[in-house]
Amino acid sequence: MNILVVDDNPISGKVMESTLQNHGYATLMARDGVQALDQLDSHPEIGLVITDIVMPNVDGKELIRIIKKRREWQDIPVLISTSLKPEDVFRESPFMGGQFFLFKPVKPVSLLQKVKECLNGQQVALCDLDQTRAEMGLLPEVFDEIVADFLKIVEDRIGQLEQSHKFYGATNLDELAEAARLFRAPRITAVLTRLERAMDRQFLPILVHSVYPLLLRELKALRHYLNLYLSRDYGENSADFPGTTAKNPSDRHHFFVPWNPLDDKSSS
Questions:
Q1: N or C: less crowded end of the chain, CB within 10 Å?
Q2: Are residues 253 and 205 in the same domain?
Q3: Contact 151, 229 (CB under 8 A)
Q4: What is the Cα–Cα distance from 84 to 263, expressed in whole angstroms?
Q5: Pick from 88, 119, 150: which residue ends a domain?
C-alpha cells in the first residue's frame, strides 16, 4: 500500500514522508491537488491520502470533493494536515465529509497515531503470498508459475473492463473468483460476490455504473502486487507489499488498504 502525501510546502511534505518511510510505510508525493489526482489515477494501490487544505491550483477541499465523488476512490480514507485554526477547520468539516484531522506543525507521534486510526480495520487487497505458498505446500518455482497464471487472468479482465464493459456481458466471472479465493484476495472476492448475486437478480445495469470503477481499481491493485511479488523487487520498499514485514513488526496493519465493503458479509 502507498500513502499519498499532498502538500505544497516541501519542508512539511518531506518531514511527513520521512516519518512514514522510517516506520515502514511506502509513500508518494504531490505538491497540489492536480498532481494528487494524477497519482490516484496512476497508482491504484494508494490506501490513504494525507492532504493540506490551502494549496495552489486544486486545493485540499476540492481534492476531497473529487475523491468522494468518484466511486473507485470514495472509500479511501483522507487525513487532513493543516495549519488553519481548529475552529476554522471544524466549521467546514461537514462539507469535507468528516475526515480525520492533523494540525501543523506535525509531530511524528501524532502523525503515526492518526495514520493508524485511518487504517484501523481495513482489509488487505492480497494476503501474504509466501504464507499462501507455504500453506499450499508448493515449491517456489511452481508457485511462481501459478501466480503468473493468476496475473494473466487479472490482466485479461482489466483489458475486457476497459473495452466498453464487455467484461459483464460476455465473460464468466468464475475463473477470476476462484483464483481470487485461492490466493486470498478478500477485496476483489467481495466485489465479485456482489456482482454474481446482482446477475442472479438482474440488477446488473445499476451495478455496472456503481461497481465498474471500483472493480477496475481492485484489479489494477492486484496486478500491482502480483507483479511486485514476481519481480521480488520490494526490498527496501517492503511496505508497498501486503503481508511483508515492516521495520516495526507490530505495524503489519501498514499493509491494510481501504475497503468500505459493498457487502462484506456476502463473501462469508
A1: C
A2: yes
A3: no
A4: 37
A5: 119
